[in-house]
Each structure stands twice: as structure tokens, then as C-alpha cells.
What does this fold into?
Amino acid sequence: MSIRLFINDVLTLGVSIELDREQSHYLATVMRQKVGDSVALFNGRDGEWAALITGIEKRTVILDIQQQTKPQSNEPDLWLAFAPIKKARLDFIAQKATELGVDRLIPVMTRRTIVDRVKTDRMVANAVEAAEQCERLTVPTVGDVTKLEKLLQDWPSDRHLMFCDEDLSGEPAHAALQKVAAKSNPGPWGLLIGPEGGFDDAERRMIRQHPNCVTVSLGPRVLRADTAAMAAISLWQSALGDW
It folds into this structure.
């Protein structure tokens, strides 16, 4: 499989691109690429393009764009809002949500969230790396850390909110999503996953009262937050996404 890199430059036929120091080091030193080798590039806007390495200088690799290999396509309009967890598992969520096709990641502070700082730049780096490896043509955006109350207040009026409630009072997720799938235009969605220990009672009432809320159950077992996120994404993708 060809090496893939996400870049911000415009991609079009005949353009010459100088990679930044980090990506140049990755290609020339880590991956031991040479002049004449081919690399795949994407920027989330112009599709995927084959590029030829035409120069390797001390800290810069130069690429010439050769041809488009894939036209641009976008992921389903799905957001994942989740309470941040410890670093390694937060990395896991960013990586796997990207692989599963989430379009936007939103860290949400709740009353039981135990993590008080979130490095969103680290989340972006994990999302970029995952997008490069899984061959998607976009990288999910990462929103600023926000409080639950603010998230609900600013939630778009046209976007459904799938609330994965651990108390099992919601309809089984697959059945609830199949009902929506029967409609001609289910529209954009977001998934809301709580912290370890779940939402408190006041938060759950607030979420359930939101006009866009669809409360669902992810089954009889208590899931870790990262497991719940992956389960919810998978169920949504199978019913309403591009699977």
C-alpha cells in the first residue's frame, strides 16, 4: 500500500509541493523513501493524488503532483460528543472514531468527568494518522472542549442527538435507528457518550428534555466509555451511514 499523507496544500495537476520538516523527516528518514518514489496525498477537499518525489534536501522533501487517483468524497454527517477519559483511551477514541467515519469529535465536560485537561492538538494528530492509514479522504474536525450545558444549548436544530443512556430505559439502539432509517431523509446526527460512572440524574433529565434527543440503550452490560463510543458509532453506521 502506498504511503499516504494529509497536507493542507491545494492539490491539482502539475503543482510542486515542499513538505514541512516533520513530514519530510518521516518520508526520507523513517520510511527511507528516495527520489522517484510515489506517495499518495489528500487534503480533505481535492480527492487523493499520486505524487512523485523529485527532490530530497536536508530538511525538505519536494513532491510533484502527477494525477488524481480518487475523487473527493465525504464521510456521513455524524458527530461524536463524549466525556474525555485518560490519555491512552482518548487516543483510542480519536483513532477508531476516525476509522469508523465520524466527521467531528467534541470533548464534553460533565459533572463526573475526571479528566480536567484535554490536548485537542493530540486528538487532531491521532485523527490525521488514522485517516492516512484507513484511506479515508477527510480528517474529522476536533471541537473545543465544552460543558454539557453549552453543548445542548448550541446543538443545531436540524441534528438528531442519540443519547446512549446506561440505565437501559431507552429503546434498543438498533431498533430505534431502523425506525429513522425508514424515513426518506434522516438528516444529520450526533452521538452523546458519558463519562465513567455515567451522567448524574440532573444531567440525564436535561439531555432527555432536549427536543432532538433520541434515548437508546446499548445493551444489558455496562460498557467502558471508549467501548460505548465504538458500539454506538457502529450501530449508527449500519443503520444510517455508509456501511
User: Anything to note?
Assistant: The chain has a mean pLDDT of 93. Helices lie at 21-30, 87-99, 120-134, 148-154, 173-181, 201-208, 225-240.
